Amino acid sequence: MKQLFSAILLILAASAQAQSVKSFVMAKPEEAGMSSARLARIDGVVNDYINQQWIPGSVVLVIRNGKIVHEKAYGYSDAEAKIPMKTDNIFRIASQSKAITSLAVMMLWEEGKFFLDDPVSKYIPEFKNPRVLTSFNMRDSSFTAEKAKSEPTIRQLLTHTSGIDYAGIGSQEFKAIYAKAGLVSGIGNNKGTIAEKMKLLGGLPLKHNPGERYTYGLNNDVLGYLVEIWSGMSFDNFLRKRIFEPLGMKDTWFYLPPDRHSRLVTLYEGSSGTYRRATKTVYDGVNPDYPKLEGTYFSGGAGLSSTVEDYAKFLQLFLNKGEFNGTRLLSRKTVELMLTNQTLDPVTEQFGLGFGLETERNDARSVYSIGTFSWGGAYMTSYWADPKEKIVALIFNQMYATSHGDLSERVKTLIYSSITD
Fold it and tell me: What's the predicted TM-score (pTM) here?
């Protein structure tokens, strides 16, 4: 009897978990204060990009008030094989990994594991006594550096003001310095570990003094390693157990299980204007099919692949002030902190703890509402979430080095022009 009772409890718990991570429900746009006719304009714009051979295919998802008002797949996931794109296809989301890493960090901040203004060296000693680059010799990648005015902090990692640059895609001098040291961009690099590489990074010079400028860099890979230190778990396991499983993000992975390989969208290259299959390595020697590999490097800045609905669950969590379908990962106050601009003059970029932000300072340039948070990925994926209008929008493509990367801006206009209330 006791065993039977335990089994029933397990079934009920599993049922409750399944209900808490259910997918979004569909609704007519008019039920959410939007126009069906105007949202239908998205079809024409996306199909035009496909007909012009600027992209092979795309998935667009629009959610308002927690309900799907537009979700469509366009074109092909594999143009040569004529495999139609589907809404549950998996995309390399590259830098969209950063916000997920920031969520992991802030969950541990809520547990009292660190202070935001702690120096990184408190947890990774290799970052002690940082230096700032003063000269660089392109012939042999040698350099000189001077003592930094301060040490980079956790907050500066979250806002890309630490002075750390990017391997593979950063400035010319730091691409060379990092390559010589064996550091990688994380965009599909599967060898080594973040512990090994971030310790190496700690001994290399900074691009500028911490806090003085915004430099997009390997900050989130450092944060991924810090998650390992603070949690005692591998970074991929922390994300799986603490974020992906609770939110029902079953298709978000660093390296895809074999049963999901067929859903990975083919990567295309478009620097010549029209697309063609990417057959050569990209960025710093990356195999285009890296999500199908079995890797050990879990890049918090660029390593994940996902679907539009999985990522929408993550974004809706923030619109819901830290809760999604009965699962709470953050408090309301922590979400408010993350979505508050953290950068000070002379830094002009408006950035919270993990997201680019729409603020009064930059609002005249966009139709976004103040408070909107957004970012994108290197392979032409993009997202935003608008707390005022309660909109979550994702436009996913798989293009490398495209000359037609403005699709998301066009779709953005169509979405906002569809609001009727």
Answer: 0.94
